[in-house]
Amino acid sequence: MNRKILFSNIFHAFLTKGINFLVPLLLMPFILRMFGVEKFGEYFYAQSVLQTYALFIDFGFVVTAVKAISNSEEDNNERNKTASFVIVFKLFLTFISTVFFLGYFFFEGYNANNFHLFLFVFLSFCFQINLPIWFFQGIQKNSIFSLVNLISKIILLCFVFLTINKNSPLFLIPLYEAVAYFAALILSFLIMVYFQKFSFIKFKVKQFKELLAESFQIFFISILNWAIVSGSTIILKKRVSENEFGIFSAYSRLAYYVFAIVQPLNQALLPFFAKLFSKKSKEEAFKIFKKSLLALVAFIVIILITSGLGINYINIYLFGNLNNEQLLGYRVVFFTLIIWVGFVLINSFISTQFLVTQNKSVVYKRLYLINAIIAVTCSFILSIQYGSLGIAFALIIGELFMFFFLIIQMLQFKKYAAT
After folding, report:
1. Residue 159 contacts by C-beta under 8 Å, 6 or more apart in sequence?
2. CA dist 135 → 58, 79, 171, 267 (Å)
3. What is the full per-residue pLDDT of the chain (419 aa) written as tens digits?
4. Of 369, 329, 331, nearest to 251 (Cα)?
5. Which helix (H) or strand (E) holds 410?
6. How far apart are the C-alpha atoms of 38 and 235, rounded to whole Å?
């Protein structure tokens, strides 16, 4: 991959996530003002619970499919066969998820408003996760998907701002998200077929055993991540007031958007580092990796400083006329969540570009398991007395342990590469 293509892919990956960051940033204060802090907490809770279905449908292909498509980009037949397998397998997982989702409400019973909210959140996840972003990243044409993403977000904003008012039901928000993602899904597949020469090719599942095994490792890590983030959120909801949970949800969502806007760096650089560690000497590859990591750390420090200086403006933007004295007590929660996101980004970068590219997904899984156990255990303990602040500290403790073990992995590799 030449530098021009690499920087183009990085730029468009950031552009896509930048749009995905900007649109929710526009919608968050609007939703908070239209529906209130407590209703926003309900919406966030539904997303946290249903995130498991999204992770199940993705099954780790967000990482492994990019790598597989990238490795077969010069062979259209092999590329299309891989893409065909990923598409069909994800549709199969979507069907299974739908059966379980509807089955739960059928046997447990539901009220209409609660069901509609969960249903449309579920649909929006299904359409979003089935977007073939991995295909465009694999063929190093992120510019195409960034355009598709922009169109879908314009559709979403038009629906929300033109039709939502204070008398609207909350479930309209995820309904409009589902419509926008469905439009993006249709457009993406049309582009794949008519402009990228994609055609469905029959395959045998046994041909993709290695891909499935590697994907399962990433999926397992994703489930652990859900246990850390969403699991902690579910614990918190049972222990604090709806108002505190709503405020924590807003801060947590904002912290996630910081993660989401930087995380594409991982996906955009994955094909580059996969080839780098396979073709260059280990010592040379590690030097390039280390420089990239230091650049990421510098960027995270800038985010932390900016967040600290702008906390008052952030509160005014998100909550408007909500009592500022009430929000003062949650500043530490916000700062702690931002620091936590910084460590998540660093750990994710090291794990993806350093471990996954060298086929060490098993090591990645074990480290994340340690992270999850520590974070969830600390969440149970600390949230009893400290509420949302206890959850924020629990998340950081887990990431710090993972960071420590990743540093050990890097030092061992550096010692091995020098010999």
Report:
1. 176, 179, 180
2. 13, 9, 31, 12
3. 556 666 777 677 667 777 877 888 888 889 988 998 889 899 989 998 899 999 999 999 988 898 888 887 677 888 899 999 999 999 999 999 999 998 887 776 656 667 889 999 999 999 999 999 999 888 888 888 889 999 999 999 999 999 999 899 999 999 999 999 999 999 999 999 998 888 898 888 888 898 998 898 888 878 888 888 888 888 898 888 888 898 888 888 888 777 776 776 676 677 677 777 776 677 777 888 888 889 888 988 898 888 888 888 888 888 876 656 666 778 888 889 989 989 998 998 888 888 877 777 778 888 888 998 999 999 999 999 999 999 999 999 999 999 999 998 888 877 665 55
4. 331
5. helix 361-418
6. 17
Tokens of 72: 């077969």
Q: 267-283: string of b/e by CB count within 10 Å (b at 16+)?
A: bbbbbbbbebbeeeeee
Tokens 């979403």 sit on residue: 156
Reduced to 3 states (helix: H, G, I; strand: E, B; else coil), residue 284 is: helix
Residue whose structure tokens are 């457009």: 187
DSSP characters over 47-113: HHHHHHHHHHHHTTHHHHHHHHHHHTTT-HHHHHHHHHHHHHHHHHHHHHHHHHHHHHHHHH---HH
Side chain identity at 366, as an amino acid letter? R
